[in-house]
Design goal:
- Among the domains are: 39 residues; 214 residues, MetI-like fold (Orthogonal Bundle), CATH 1.10.3720.
- It is 65% helix and 1% strand.
- The chain is built from 14 helices and one strand.
- The longest helix is centred in the last third of the chain and has 30 residues.
């Protein structure tokens, strides 16, 4: 058995060349696999070698990490003034929320993050998750507003920073997604009235920028209310975000619905499934799996678009950070402020994008060839 049919010895398995495997293989395949890639790698390496050392020197080695005033940061040769961030971190993260009560938005932010992270685990994808979200959102509202259980009442005009950004983005996604699903199904309905109502709504909302929707909700809408009747500014802005986001989600989901093969619909009909059973068990799972990347991209866009609420007087994370620059003692350190704020946005957005990639790979295991 050790010899092949013609009588010679069996061939010994050979390892691939060392240049094709390991770190050397990865470098050759990804960085030097052609003339243009090699040239771009050399240029990029040169740029990194000439900029990164100086950046590290400014941001870390010569940086001022703690100080009561800006004087140490203005000494010749001083680097980044992270002492500014340390001094103003409460204003950046919590806005003008009362100082002694800032444990409440901190706890509310933690609850939202736990709900988000827990929802990323497919083991929790059941009806109980909806109960957890309902209870969690109620707890967040109680903590932020107060007025019950001995908590001091805090108007939402004093909310700001990261909690406000998370609340508007999370609540916007939670309520806009089912509305978008209904609109997507309505746009593909065979009933003309439902179809045209859905089309009119989607095209009207998608035809105007978000800032117009926010201004309409905050300035124009109250003009049509009866005398003495008012609706909370934050609620109006949140509803505007939800309605705007729902229109874009509807178009994304509609693309997924159109990509589902017609045979799937016919198979569901042959089984005698009702419309809602067919959509819930056959069509929507396939459609949503195919549109995970654009859906997550849309959610990331909503998270960043919360900065537009400044036009109606609400201070999200970015605008609370900009408010820190009004302190005359710390004027001139906007670079550090924007780097710090950008890092927070990057962490959230990058985490969402990586999770969407992992989820897409996991859900597409059965369709790989």
């Amino acid at each position: 058995m050790a010899e092949i049919a013609h009588g010679g010895p069996a061939a010994t398995p050979m390892r691939p060349p060392a240049i094709e495997i390991g770190v050397a293989g990865w470098v050759r395949k990804n960085l030097f696999n052609g003339v243009w890639n090699s040239l771009l790698t050399i240029v990029a390496g040169y740029v990194l070698l000439t900029t990164v050392p100086g950046l590290l020197d400014w941001a870390i080695f010569r940086a001022v990490w703690s100080a009561d005033t800006s004087a140490p940061c203005k000494v010749e040769g001083a680097g980044a003034c992270w002492a500014f961030i340390a001094d103003k971190h409460r204003l950046i993260f919590f806005g003008t929320y009362p100082y002694v009560e800032q444990w409440r938005p901190l706890l509310a932010t933690g609850i939202l993050l736990v709900l988000i992270v827990g929802s990323c685990d497919r083991r929790f994808w059941n009806r109980s998750l909806m109960i957890y979200w309902a209870v969690g959102l109620v707890l967040v509202a109680v903590l932020m507003w107060g007025g019950v259980f001995g908590l001091t009442y805090v108007s939402n005009l004093d909310w700001g920073g990261l909690p406000l950004t998370l609340i508007m983005a999370v609540v916007g996604c939670v309520f806009a997604f089912p509305i978008g699903l209904v609109l997507a199904l309505g746009r593909r309905s065979h009933m003309p009235i439902i179809r045209w109502l859905s089309v009119s709504y989607i095209e009207l909302i998608r035809g105007v920028p978000l800032i117009t929707v926010l201004i309409t909700a905050s300035v124009i809408f109250p003009l049509f209310l009866p005398a003495g009747v008012s609706i909370d500014k934050l609620l109006r802005a949140q509803v505007g975000l939800i309605l705007f986001e729902a229109a874009y989600i509807a178009e994304i989901v509609r693309g997924g619905l159109q990509a589902v093969p017609r045979g799937q619909h016919e198979a569901a009909d042959s089984l005698g499934l009702s419309f809602f059973q067919k959509q819930r068990k056959i069509v929507l799972p396939q459609a949503l799996r195919m549109v995970i990347p654009p859906l997550v991209g849309n959610f990331i866009g909503l998270f960043k678009s919360t900065t537009l609420v400044i036009v109606i007087g609400l201070f999200d994370l970015l605008n609370s950070a900009k408010a820190a620059l009004t302190d005359l003692n710390w004027r001139g350190f906007s670079i550090e402020l924007y780097i710090f704020t950008a890092a927070i946005y990057f962490i959230f957005c990058y985490s969402m994008s990586k999770y969407s990639q992992a989820l897409e790979r996991d859900l597409n295991k059965g369709t790989r060839r």
